[in-house]
Amino acid sequence: MKDLGFILASWVMTLGSIGVLALVTLRRARELSSRVPDEHKPWV
Amino acid sequence: MDLTPRSAPEPKRSSRRVLPIVVAVLASVAGLAIVVMFLTSSIDYYCNVDEVGVREGCDDTRRVRVQGSVDEGSLQSRAGNTSFVMSFNGVSLPVDYEGEPGGVFQECIPVVAHGRIVDGVLMATRIEVRHSNEYEAENADRLEEAEKSACS
Amino acid sequence: MTTGTAATRVLGVLAIITTAWVVVSAFFLTPADVVQGDSVRIMYAHVPTAWIAYLAFVTTAVASGFSLVRKHRTLGFDRVAGASAEVGVLFMAMTLITGSLWGRITWGTFWQWDPRLTTTLFLFVTYVGYLAIRRVDVDPVRRARRSSVIALLAVLEIPLVHFSVVLWRSLHQEASVLNTDGDVRLDGLMLFTLFSGVVAFTLMFVWLVMHRQRLTALSDLERVVGLDAAISARRAEGVSGIHAT
Asked: Are residues B38 and B75 in the same domain?
């Protein structure tokens, strides 16, 4: 496949950055959740 | 019982408050710079070949960006130099470029050449390809069709 | 319990499955383009990220509008607005990066100050500024009021970006879908993969926004809970002090 480096870089950066944001979000959520009682969380 | 007022802890003037302000200022400066770059590089990105020396802002006495299709059979590469003729609306302009144009440069494709016109020849310092907004599967029949239609 | 619910878990699984299909189709099933060759495979990431970034910024504007009008639920809408802008900025950054890589292959250059590229960069910078402004205010109510006004103004840039290739002459090609003449200029499987990409990135967007708006809520709540706890502790300290004397 021609220009495979460019094509792969595009996909890896796109999906990678979204994956990193998802992981960071879940990690921070776990951290904060432990400090806030469940009765304050409307989605629970 | 000690009821003397406690001294308030030092307010955190750390990066938590300062960083967003710095980012906001940088974003404003960047936004201004983008507008300036846009306006100074002319809003319309190019002039068509038939507008050179005719339309306002397309003077042939200064650096121009000219758009046209590469004429079939006009492309010549010699000793790292590329020359071709580009046309638009029945008007043609010879182009001379030192180097190999990048991208999907080929005959019959629209290009934008940046440079100055000297003795009727555009001495290009940059060539960019303007590809169309049509996407078709690559196969032998399509290649022939595409080549024919692009230059017909 | 964190920010996840049954709904977000289902969304997450659907997003992963759809994305996997898009990647397989983009790399192995769709054909190369007759002019651009294999570089067209970047399109299946570039175009959906651009469209979903637009969707994100429109969501931010709509939620901001509600937060200004519906006084009682101000903070909920404001959190959705902020979360949507965060995801939109990431998607827009990816649009710029993938577009730049695609441009290098097809145009022969990473960047030019042409109308589409410039207006897109301006839109990106505007929302980076919006997110920065959101973080300046510690008070959530003031944050909501100030950022809502910015969001409602910033969204006006989107039509300018989308129609920049029609309004002015641009190096960037005109739209192949959602163009002014209504024609679709993509072969069958290419179009299907592109729309699958839009679905996949929409699912990712919704999942991220749901989690991130709850994260903002947790962050705001933590401040309140922390303050309540501090007041209670001080009261308890005072009461025990009185008993001791």
From this structure: no
pLDDT at B140 > cutoff 60: no
Whether B contacts A, i.e. 3 or more CB pairs less than 8 A apart, is: no
Q: Do C225 and A40 touch (CB under 8 A)?
A: yes
Q: How far is C242 from chain B (nearest CA, A)?
A: 7
**Contact assignment for C208 to A21 by CB distance below 8 Å:** yes
Q: Are B67 and B37 part of one and the same domain?
A: no
Q: Which long-range contacts (CB under 8 A, 24 or more apart) does B29-38 make?
A: B30/C125, B31/C122, B31/C125, B31/C126, B31/C129, B34/C118, B34/C121, B34/C122, B34/C125, B35/C122, B37/C113, B37/C118, B38/C113, B38/C115, B38/C118, B38/C119, B38/C122
Residue of A14, A18, A29 with shortest CB distance to C98: A14
Does residue C220 belong to any structural domain of this protein? yes
| Residue C1 belongs to a domain | no
Question: Model confidence over C12-49: pLDDT tens digits?
Answer: 999 999 999 999 999 999 999 988 899 999 999 999 99
ipTM over 0.90: yes
pTM of the predicted structure, to 2 decimals: 0.86
Q: Give chain C's domain count.
A: 1
Q: Which residues form the domain of B38?
A: 15-44
What are the tens digits of pLDDT across the range B96-105?
Answer: 999 989 888 9
